[in-house]
């Protein structure tokens, strides 16, 4: 109980702080009324030892003298227009309104201030400080310090502790936006965690080579030791989605390379979990980073996590049953993730094919390509001497034509085991050269 | 005369080990009405004339009834007073009475015709504090949908009339075509609903604690019976004017917060304070940005460099402070917030509630959008009609009275409020000089029900009085001063409607 003395001594005497009763109550987690008594007791004790070492302010509440006279609401004055002269005469009662005054008074003025009071209902120490209060603003700042101590989370319980008048009827609105976001985050978290763990064994061997194509194979290998290491059957169940996920990640890359992994794709493609692609693909993209930065794999696996994984698997299976349309949409969503790898792999193809020097395709759709290309043009003009001069120079020319470069077209065909959805995924990126290939197919 | 030694206080003692009791706040019975709520996708393309027409059709029967009771059968100089339906039907030399809308023209009053004549160019807003001038140059006329007639007579000089109020006048038309008024009548107080007209008194719901009952589309929170017996109080404050630059009354605001929370003062007083069941903030919670000369100079210079809106010039501090203030209060006391002239709400009457986006912390206490239940923190309209502890309460942020005061020589705000009640119109000068929404279907400013309590915020001084109507109506009028200037709040007893004041004074201030 006496620790308030040390607290006050520390803050008021050593650190020159102004401490209000509210601050003290928050700091020590005591009732405000107890805090007021603590302040009083400390003030008395300190000034008993050394007068003038601590200065207090008091909060006084009561009725002031003469307030009754002045509290009369301005009665109708001489210059007042009688607004209602035609009204039936009524005695309009101007009430004598009782006035209570709440004053904050420094201790050296307290005696005088109390003189002005007719009745004091309540008085207590408001704050203690090492110096007499000169500027109210400082005190106000001290009072506001309370905010820094209060924690918004447990408001109702705090009210009881501090002695704020409680209200049983208080209603707070459930923040829908916040709530749903939290709810969404909760299932998302295990999702994000699980694939990460799975991907690691795959990523590690692949890291050095950075051959994304090999990844599906690796993932297939990885699960095989996985079930044996953790004993539970849940783990082995989880291994399957792992493979699928890894497969889908690698698929994107492998698909570009052609039909090499065709057989593999055939089994992994339908299993592609459309629902959580977003959480999977980032992995396949920065696998190297993952393996480098996060070397520790899934060692601790709680039962809860396992059951979550199982839930997830069921969820995935449900999703897989959904029709292709949905998958298309999902696929489109992942495309941004792919961006880093695809350009390198696919761009060279059209460029290596015979083409005009430079070409920028700005739009291609409805089977036509539009854009600008660089061509050599002959420009003929009269110079200062009146001679006709012909200059050949490069110029940009806009064009619009039918799908011009056919050679790359068969390429995607080779990957035809993948559904058309795969082709579409590139669409929103604005990679004209690739898109144009797929447009014909659809 | 109190000496320090005489004062006994349990708090001027050594700390005791016992844990003090925490008082429980009296529940608040509160049902705001949607009288002044505008629809969200409202149009502003209508003409204003409809408001006057609607007002006249709504109030005319009442004022004609009063006039008929007074003047029917009355004869002046062998001539019987005859009722005339339309202003245009007044015949020269005939003693008659007619009802219509008052229009007051004053030289200093902004005239809508100026705007029209300037064609697509809006005149600068008026800066005069009063439209009234001493020279007696103002003309009063009576109009309805048929025509307009100028009123003259000594009677007028003793009576305050403003544009938009509905009256009946008796007299004759003289040779100049002016109407010489012998007497004038107002519709007087509207019928007053019984107490608990919309909500049920708590004691009828014994044993049904906290039950919500549906009644006339109003959800009313039922409260337990014991609490209602003890007379609760409502705290009313206006003009808190949280400011980013002026901290001269910041301490008083802190003390107000502690007072309302019941943390200040001794246990006995804290129990008293727990009977304050609701806080009504009647306008001007956020201060106008009064820039000092230096500051405005600095911003002027900056303005040259930056094109468009400079977000640096926006000071979010006032609304932050206000939000914090509310956030601390709300766990303990429900708050009804009316916007005022300075608040971030639409400026035209009726002002709609301040958007809760202004209160990132305290908005979790506000109502769910679209729900019919009033929020614990109710950002309401201005004016607001509500039923509180069964009493019909009309509250405004003060613009209606402020605008009316410009027409009048005196500053008798209570008199103006009384006049509004007797005219049955809570904002007579809208839409003439008080900007207002162009209503099409209804004029909500017509007081169809006489309130028991009429509160107007942001007034220069405190004042209260009770007025009575011919049918035994009793209305308690209160003008609430701005806290920033007067540092006081008003407490109203919920059983007797008695008023008391609390002044808050920090060090150095009076």
TrEMBL record, chain A:
Q: Where is the composition biased (Low complexity)?
A: 183-210, 412-421
Q: Which Pfam family, any one, appears in the UniProt record?
A: CDC27
Question: What is the predominant subcellular site recorded for this chain?
Answer: nucleus
GO biological process terms on file = DNA strand elongation involved in DNA replication; DNA synthesis involved in UV-damage excision repair; nucleotide-excision repair, DNA gap filling
The protein's location, in the record's own words, is: Nucleus
Where is this chain compositionally biased, Basic residues type? 369-379
Residue ranges, annotated region (Disordered): 63-96, 181-442
Keyword Nucleus: yes or no? yes
Q: Where is the composition biased (Basic and acidic residues)?
A: 211-220, 311-321, 346-357
Cellular component terms per the entry's GO annotation: delta DNA polymerase complex
- Asked if the Swiss-Prot or TrEMBL record annotates the protein with the keyword Protease, the reply is no
Q: Where is composition skewed (Acidic residues) in this entry?
A: 322-345
Sorted keywords for this record are: DNA replication, Nucleus
Its Gene Ontology molecular function terms? DNA-directed DNA polymerase activity
What is the protein's given name? DNA polymerase delta subunit 3
UniProtKB/TrEMBL annotation, chain B:
The signal peptide annotation in the UniProt record is: none
Q: Which UniProt keywords apply?
A: DNA replication, DNA-directed DNA polymerase, Nucleotidyltransferase, Nucleus, Transferase
Cellular localization per UniProt? Nucleus
Q: What is its EC number?
A: 2.7.7.7
Q: Which GO terms describe its molecular function?
A: DNA binding; DNA-directed DNA polymerase activity
Q: Which residues form the DNA polymerase delta subunit OB-fold domain?
A: 47-184
Task: State the protein's name.
Answer: DNA-directed DNA polymerase
Q: Which organism is it from?
A: Coniochaeta ligniaria NRRL 30616
The organism's lineage? Eukaryota, Fungi, Dikarya, Ascomycota, Pezizomycotina
């Amino acid at each position: 109980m006496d620790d308030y003395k040390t607290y006050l001594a520390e803050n008021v005497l050593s650190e020159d702080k102004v401490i209000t009763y509210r601050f003290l109550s928050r700091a020590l987690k005591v009732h405000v009324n107890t805090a007021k008594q603590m302040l009083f007791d400390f003030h008395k004790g300190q000034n008993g030892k050394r007068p003038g070492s601590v200065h207090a302010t008091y909060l006084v509440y009561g009725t002031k003298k003469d307030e009754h006279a002045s509290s009369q609401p301005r009665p109708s004055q001489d210059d007042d227009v009688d607004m209602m002269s035609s009204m039936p005469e009524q005695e309009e009662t101007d009430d004598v309104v009782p006035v209570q005054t709440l004053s904050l008074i420094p201790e050296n003025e307290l005696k005088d201030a109390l003189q002005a009071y007719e009745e004091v209902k309540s008085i207590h120490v408001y704050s203690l400080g090492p110096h007499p209060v000169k500027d109210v603003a400082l005190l106000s700042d001290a009072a506001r310090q309370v905010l820094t101590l209060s924690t918004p989370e447990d408001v109702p319980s705090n009210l009881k502790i501090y002695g704020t008048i409680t209200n049983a009827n208080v209603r707070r609105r459930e923040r829908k936006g916040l709530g749903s976001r939290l709810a969404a985050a909760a299932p998302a978290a295990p999702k994000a965690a699980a694939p990460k763990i799975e991907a690691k064994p795959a990523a590690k061997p692949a890291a050095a080579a950075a051959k994304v194509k090999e990844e599906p194979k690796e993932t297939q290998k990885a699960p095989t030791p996985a079930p044996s290491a953790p004993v539970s059957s849940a783990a082995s169940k989880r291994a399957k989605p792992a493979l699928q996920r890894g497969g889908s990640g690698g698929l994107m890359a492998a698909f570009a390379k052609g039909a090499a992994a065709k057989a593999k794709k055939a089994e992994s493609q339908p299993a592609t979990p459309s629902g959580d692609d977003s959480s999977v693909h980032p992995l396949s993209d920065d696998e190297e980073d993952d393996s480098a930065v996060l070397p520790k794999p899934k060692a601790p696996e709680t039962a809860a996590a396992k059951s979550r994984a199982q839930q997830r698997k069921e969820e995935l299976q449900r999703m897989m049953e959904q029709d292709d349309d949905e998958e298309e949409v999902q696929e489109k969503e992942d495309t941004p993730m792919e961006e880093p790898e695809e350009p390198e792999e696919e761009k060279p193809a059209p460029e290596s094919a015979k083409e005009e020097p430079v070409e920028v395709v700005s739009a291609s759709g409805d089977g036509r390509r539009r854009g600008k290309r660089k061509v050599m043009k002959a420009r003929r003009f009269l110079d200062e001497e009146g001679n006709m001069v012909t200059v050949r120079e490069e110029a940009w020319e806009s064009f619009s034509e039918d799908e011009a470069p056919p050679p790359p077209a068969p390429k995607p065909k080779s990957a035809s085991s993948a559904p058309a959805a795969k082709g579409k995924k590139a669409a929103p990126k604005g990679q004209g050269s690739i898109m144009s290939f797929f447009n014909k197919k659809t | 005369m109190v000496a320090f030694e005489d004062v006994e206080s349990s708090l001027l003692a050594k700390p005791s080990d016992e844990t003090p009791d925490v008082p429980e706040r009296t529940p608040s019975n509160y049902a705001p009405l949607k009288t002044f709520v505008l629809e969200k996708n409202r149009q502003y393309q209508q003409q204003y004339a409809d408001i006057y027409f609607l007002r006249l059709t709504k109030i005319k029967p009442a004022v004609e009834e009063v006039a008929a009771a007074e003047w029917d059968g009355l004869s002046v100089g062998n001539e019987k007073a005859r009722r005339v339906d339309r202003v245009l039907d007044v015949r020269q030399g005939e003693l008659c009475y007619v009802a219509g809308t008052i229009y007051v023209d004053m030289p200093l009053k902004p005239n809508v015709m100026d705007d029209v004549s300037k064609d697509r160019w809006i005149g600068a807003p008026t800066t005069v504090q009063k439209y009234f001038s001493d020279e007696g140059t103002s003309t009063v006329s009576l109009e309805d949908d048929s025509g307009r007639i100028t009123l003259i007579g000594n009677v007028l000089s003793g009576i305050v009339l403003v544009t938009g109020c509905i009256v009946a006048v008796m007299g004759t038309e003289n040779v100049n075509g002016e109407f010489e008024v012998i007497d004038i009548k107002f519709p007087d107080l509207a019928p007053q609903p019984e107490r608990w007209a919309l909500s049920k008194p708590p004691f009828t719901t014994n044993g049904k604690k906290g039950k919500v009952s549906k009644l006339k589309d109003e959800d009313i929170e039922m409260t337990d019976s014991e609490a209602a017996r003890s007379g609760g109080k409502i705290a009313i404050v206006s003009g808190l004017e949280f400011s980013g630059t002026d901290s001269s009354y910041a301490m008083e605001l802190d003390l107000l917060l502690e007072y309302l929370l019941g943390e200040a003062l001794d246990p006995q007083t804290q129990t008293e304070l727990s009977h304050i069941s609701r806080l009504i903030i009647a306008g001007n919670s956020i201060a106008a940005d009064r820039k000092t000369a230096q500051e405005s100079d600095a911003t002027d210079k900056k303005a040259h460099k930056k094109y468009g809106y400079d977000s640096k010039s926006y000071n979010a501090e006032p609304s932050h402070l206000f939000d914090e203030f509310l956030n601390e209060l709300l766990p303990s006391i429900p708050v009804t917030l009316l916007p005022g002239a300075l608040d971030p709400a639409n400026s035209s009457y009726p002002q709609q509630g301040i958007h809760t986006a202004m209160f990132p912390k305290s908005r979790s206490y506000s109502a769910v959008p679209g729900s019919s239940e009033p929020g614990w923190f109710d950002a309401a309209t201005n004016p607001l009609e509500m039923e509180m502890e069964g009493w019909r309460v009309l509250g405004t942020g003060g613009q209606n009275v402020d605008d009316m005061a410009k027409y009048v020589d005196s500053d008798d705000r209570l008199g103006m409020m009384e006049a509004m009640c007797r005219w049955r119109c809570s904002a007579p000068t809208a839409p003439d000089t008080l900007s207002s929404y162009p209503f099409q279907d209804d004029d909500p400013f017509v007081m169809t029900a006489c309130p028991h309590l009429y509160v107007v915020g942001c007034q220069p001084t405190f004042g209260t009085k009770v007025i009575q109507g011919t049918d035994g109506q009793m209305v308690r009028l209160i003008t609430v001063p701005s806290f920033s200037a007067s540092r006081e709040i008003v407490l109203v007893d919920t059983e007797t409607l008695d008023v008391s004041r609390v002044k808050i004074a920090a060090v150095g201030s009076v």
